[in-house]
Amino acid sequence: MRFSTSAALTLLASSPFANAWGAVGHATVGAIGDHYLTAQAKTYVSSLLGSGVSMSSVASWADDFRYTTAGRFSAPFHFVDAEDSPPTTCSVDLNRDCGAGGCIVSAIANYTQRVNDRRYTLANRKQALEFLIHFIGDITQPLHDEAKAVGGNQIPVLWAGNKTNLHATWDTAMVEKDAGGSYGAAVIASFSDRLIAAIDGGVYASQKAEWISCTDVKNAGACALGWAQDANRINCLYVLKVDETGQELEGGYYTGAKPYIELQIAKAGYRLGSWVNNLAAAA
Questions:
Q1: Cystine design at 59: which of 6, 30, 218, 251 (Cβ 3.0–4.6 Å)?
Q2: Cα–Cα distances in angstroms (integers) from residue 233 to residues 63, 92, 241, in the given order
Q3: What is the pLDDT of residues 241-279, one digit of tens each?
């Protein structure tokens, strides 16, 4: 995923399924999560991922893994297909929307249980944490909680004159424009620092407690369902409020989307830090 914006758009437009938040978004979620780890949780993460390995650095592993033969089973775990009717009604119902092969809600519940279960090997538990780092990012991307037009993958749009789709634009193009680059340590550090400042003493300071109102790792399924429902409602509020088919999104649409992108990435990172802190405490 370490491509220029134009190259990434070409690739994403040719693929039916894009990766939530892309490399920049996921690395930023991981960096925010890293920032909020307790000393106990830092030791816990190192014990599973390896000494000196950050959550940010492995945040996109699950996207790479899903396209391998060994990882094909995990493809449904990156989303939940909400069969709702945006922009009129938005909802996520686990019985209706989580398929037989599982979904992101059930995956978060499953890997939350596995990561501290010492009946599994260290490699299995490491993989469980890597999945959680990624899925807690994925679940905050509104189109990963939506079935309409395959989560927006089948809504053709333009970005800077290039043909792409709505899902890819939310995953990558708009995030990179907001972050100020297509990848790199400086881009991730700058973007995450900006969002951390907003969490600590800025626009999100009064909201952050609500973001982690459900972080009981023993009740992971209910928490994950709530996170999915929270993101899904943004499809009615903005993402799918107007039919953008064939439209250029780099102008006014991006301007309106930017606050939602920043909110959701900040929320994911802060939740990730809290979730891993609680996992460490329970280990």
A1: 30
A2: 24, 9, 11
A3: 999 999 999 999 999 999 999 999 999 999 999 999 999
